[in-house]
Amino acid sequence: MEAELEALRVRPIEKREEGRYRELMAQHHYLGDLAKIGHTLWYVAACGEDWAALLSFSAAAWKCGVRDRWIGWDFRHQYDRLGLIANNSRFLILPDWHRPNLGSKVLSLCQERIVADWQDRFGKRLLLLETFVDPSRFQGTVYRAANWTCLGLTQGFRRTRAGYTAHSESPKLVFVRPLQRDAPAQLSRAFLPPAYAQGVPRMMLSAEQMRLLPDFFAAIPDPRRAQGRRHPLPSVLAIATAATLCGMRGYKAIAAWAKDLKPRARERFRCRREQGIYRVPSESILRDVLIRVDPTALDKACQQWNQAYARDDQSLAVDGKTMRNAKDEQGAQTHILSVVGHQTGTCHTQKKSAHCP
């Protein structure tokens, strides 16, 4: 038995093995198979050619009260840093391999390699692992034996396409395993060190901010003809602004972000309702509006947004960029100097300048 444990090796599933992995998971796991969506890694623990256990690690839970309180992060930081957490969404010990200490051994082997695997596959550093255990079936014994920490129970609400379920269903036990000692401190910092930063600054909008954002654009003249306007201008500008605050760059990214909005979020942005469905503007509509809207009026509205919500910033970052292929009549390149708040991720002001090449 000890020899079998010593011979165990954990490795990612290869492409040619995915069919077998899914078949075994569907056959033996009480939750069934789990599709490979987004950031997902599948592992097998094997002794020679024999498969002993299967695991899946995927994106972290969007919200989890006990986890979020344990980390101590602000909700604005949370959205930008969920990518530093992976969820152990499936763990299956195959029927012929129920051995003492096998489960904790497999988890330990996963922990040793997942940071490097995640970085190699997705280009992101991991700081924390989490998992959810149904207490009506299990008590998380394997996770406790592998030195995971039980934080308590979830509230039992489940995320759906329309948002969250109206009533609590089955609360789950929440377990976490830091991948370095200061993981909570790093996740809750005012701003991340360069090693953990993930692209452009992003923030999470509250429900109140979504509802009020269109008001900031209500006074902007609509550059479109009255005939054929399918979406109110404040809604289009609010969605484009919110998507940018949440890290989207470019028309395609903004349109994709808008398309993923749930019904409640679409209602808050005051999207047009048609046959009981809130419609979001397409990429072509977003492009048309953003190209033609008065930039001075738009800038003024954004400044008003900053004045309303930037008061929570405790520190500012100043950064400058040279605009590629953007030159004035004298051939001088255009530069943009931006001041961004660390806490809110909002841009307080920008200044354009130019100097000789």
Describe this structure in words.
The protein has 357 residues and is α+β, with helices and mostly antiparallel strands. The chain has 3 domains: 2-187, Gcn5-related N-acetyltransferase (GNAT) (Aminopeptidase, 3-Layer(aba) Sandwich); 200-312, no CATH class; 314-357, no CATH class. Helices cover 34% and strands 25% of the residues. The chain is built from 13 helices and 14 strands. It has helices spanning 2-7, 18-28, 65-71, 75-81, 102-122, 141-145, 183-187, 207-212, 233-245, 251-259, 263-268, 283-292, 295-309; strands spanning 8-12, 41-47, 50-59, 85-93, 128-133, 149-153, 159-160, 163-164, 173-178, 272-274, 277-279, 316-327, 333-341, 347-355. It has a 7-stranded mixed sheet, sandwiched between helices. Strands 12-13-14 form a 3-stranded antiparallel sheet. β12 and β13 form a beta hairpin. The chain is elongated and about 75 Å long. The relative contact order is 0.09. The model has no long low-confidence stretch (mean pLDDT 82).
